[in-house]
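Morning. Coffee machine broken again, so started the prediction first thing and wrote up yesterday's gels while waiting. Chain of 163 residues, entered below exactly as on the submission form.
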Amino acid sequence: MSELLQYIIVFFISMVPLIELRGSVVYAASVGLNPFIALAIAVLGNMLPVPIIYLFARKVLIWGKDKKFIGKFFTFCYEKGEKGGKKLTSKAGRGVFVALLLFVGIPLPGTGAWTGTLAASFLDFGFKKSTVAVLLGVLLAGIIMTVGSLLAIFGVTSIFQFF
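Came back before lunch.
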């Protein structure tokens, strides 16, 4: 498979909800791509859906809540976003920017640009602030995942092996 095609795969993997940048960076490392180029491409791919999610996801969920086949799922997603936004606000207080950044940046299942942006839209946090916080969080997650992937490739199973 050509190197260009592998970078395109990295780009598209990073746009998939739940997998996002975390999965694309691991994929890039597993096929031997340049980690810095792969990280840049993964960040671009992960951030591409952010404005769409912020501006439209909440409206689509509200629209779909009373539909026959999708209503239950849309209601679940809406309530999860609303609950996540309230929880973030109650724990963070005025430090919502940092909390959103860390929520997106710490690579755990269910946290990432998609969930963070949806929560920010429920908070009415503001488009610019949300986008910057999510971008910084994506960069943080990307650095953590890139370092972790490179350490795994080089057979470092514990950070203490360096000392």
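The mean pLDDT is 88. Going to sketch it on the whiteboard this afternoon.
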